[in-house]
Amino acid sequence: MPAPPDPPSSDLRFVIIGAGMSGVLAAIQLREAGLENFTIYEKGDRIGGTWRENSYPGIACDVPSHFYSYSFALNPEWSSRFAPGAEIQAYFDAVAHRYQVFSSIRFGQEVARCAFENGRWRITLADGSTDEADFVIAATGVLHHPAVPDFEGLESFAGDVFHSARWNHDVEIEKKRVGVVGNGSSAIQIVSAIVSQVAQLAIFQRTPQWVTPIENQPYSEEEKDEFRKNPDAMWAIRTETARAFTEGFANVLVDAESPLLQAIHQNCENNLENSVRDPELREKLRPNYRAACKRLIMSEDFYESVQRANASLVSEGIERIEESGVRTRDGKLHELDVLVLATGFQVNQFVRPMQVVGRDGLALDDVWKDGANAYMAISVADFPNFFMLNGPSGPVGNFSLIEVAELQFAYIFQLIEQVRSGACHEIAASREAALRFDAERKQAAKTTIWNSGCKSWYLDKDGLPTAWPWTFDRFRQEMAKPRLEDFEKR
Ligand code: NAP
Known about the structure:
Layout: E1 14-17, H1 21-32, E2 38-42, H2 50-53, H3 85-98, E3 105-107, E4 111-117, E5 120-125, E6 130-133, E7 135-138, E8 145-146, E9 160-163, E10 177-181, H4 185-194, E11 200-204, E12 211-213, H5 221-229, H6 231-250, H7 259-275, H8 279-284, E13 297-299, H9 302-306, E14 311-314, E15 318-322, E16 325-328, E17 333-335, E18 338-341, E19 345-346, E20 355-357, H10 364-367, E21 386-388, H11 401-420, E22 427-429, H12 431-445, H13 472-480, E23 487-489
Parallel strand pairs: 1-2, 1-7, 2-3, 4-20, 7-21, 9-18, 10-11, 10-18, 11-14, 12-13
Antiparallel strand pairs: 4-5, 5-6, 8-19, 15-16, 16-17, 22-23
This protein binds NADP nicotinamide-adenine-dinucleotide phosphate.
The site of NADP nicotinamide-adenine-dinucleotide phosphate (NAP) has 26 residues, from helix 4.
């Protein structure tokens, strides 16, 4: 007869790494489930993750605010359809206060190492102190480590230079000559926000981007009052937005041939034709790949901004940086006072540079030597009771990562339940399931729009998209109930 299962354990200890959107979510959900024994380690001095780090002018979320909110903390006060970053940061602060998360956060504490030893996780902090836990939930974010190009001569620039995610608010940009390198989602928001303040704005574009138009109308006091009195009105917007995102976008990205993607492409083309008057500029701005191959840019005023008299779109490549500005390959020197590098992030880091060591001394760095991956974006074989929120191969891009994290936490919680109920002590994806998932993921990635002929941060070193390559409906289905047969339990 098999041994009877252990009695349910109520004293499991959790360490959550990172107090961004998903770390705060994990803390709230653990507490709601009666699992009070946890600590969040946060290397910064505030919560908020990406919203703390990115404070550049014009920062906003291009996912509608009533959708980019926790499902359990809808917010009637959103000022507009696409709320600005500072408001989103204030929202996370308010929710964390409401759910009393702050007392569980250790700020200024960077986790340097997590090692699975004798059935528990031993956590070593950068200051040398240690902790132990039954579970680690890594909520370390996706786009966290800035990518700074090694332009020749960058250090010789006499003006101020900083990355978009490290905006230097001490630097005055008003009436200055400013250069922005890049034209991704960050750059587009910066350009539109600062063009009317600066003397001259040079936008250094390496690859044109498709831009889909949005309208960011403010919510009136009457509308907000209605949301306060009648939360169902917010639910209705949220549900409708979620439906439109899923059916009209997320589900179709994974089928490059879908008619809806053609319609999205046409919409972007119309936007370009109708918004940019000068044919030469229009052609400079026209991508030679399909819309949504790179992350789709959403903007109500980017095209208007680049057409302003003080703006110039520089599409010649950057040769080097000199003391007084940027020298492009056509030999021209673009003289600048401030240079903003809106050049994106090192996207393959995930929990790294933290060292994670699983069973028998297996290093995550070795498992991930060819690129980060995780079964269902959550679990790595031989790393028991270690789960990631917004980890590798999850849905990224034009999604509400809050919805993604909530679905993932519900899944992780069911794995935790296996241990809490006494069914096992350790749970991780089996090696077979992890290999099978990765092979299926790579196969499915081939027919996604991200693989249709452009370069983007979605691609791995072999040029294959790393994001969840199936429909968002499938993601919801998978997250609803773990396939426990794919997990190794001890
Ligand atoms: P990004 O999309 O990776 O864009 C980086 C830009 O810098 C690209 O235009 C890239 O050109 C250019 N670049 C990089 N290295 C360069 C070099 N050596 N020389 C010249 N140009 C160079 O980064 P991001 O704009 O910060 O956005 C990253 C992601 O953050 C977005 O895709 C999105 O997921 C998220 N985000 C979201 C929002 C939101 O509203 N929800 C806002 C901002 C960011 P190439 O295209 O040629 O590579």
